[in-house]
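Predict structure. Chain length: 221.
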Amino acid sequence: MDIPAMLLEMHGVYTRDPVKAVRGQGFIKILHRRLSDDLTARLTPDSLKRKVAVMQEATIFGSHKPKDVDVSVIDPANGPLMMIGIRSQMSSVGKNVLTYYEQIIGECISLQDRFPMAVIGYIYLMPLRPIKAGLEHETVDHVRYSQFYDAITGREGPTYRDIRGVFDQFAYIVVDFATTPPVLRDDLLRPLLGHDLHISTFVDRMVATFKLRHLFLDVFT
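Prediction complete.
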């Protein structure tokens, strides 16, 4: 994933019309598209022959209700092999972050109940400071939030099928949109985290988890 190019594109979309970009999903759809392209490029010839495909906004039935999963890798015979949720929170971070935290854990549990062998990940994007007019000086505690996301990452081991509410992999993206070009601030991720939360390694980590879990399936390069 060309992260600098992606951030520059997102910055341009947002600054042209902030309200339309967020409410119309145009801003975060850039990340959806680039992630989908990266995953599609990793599909093997055999998986393509079997019609395995990367889908955006696929409606997946969870344990209690349908969920439109942002990016999924789906086998037509076996269902979802990989599912990834994506969220951006550009303002009112302190007010809403705990509500969203509870929400994404619930979504994770619902999908794991139905598809315990699937690899499930999440990408969460926040600005270094809110870029909505009037809120630029709001403080965002990225060190604390990185600990939150680290705590719900790392479903692994021989009993992984029984674990709920913990993602296989997670990426926490902190971006300084006040600079030109925008800068990825991975230095703000807490250095003592137990798991890798970098977006630069996210696709590789998801694929590696899938390969380790499903040695008999030829899906990803």
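Summary: The first strand starts at residue 53 and ends at 61.
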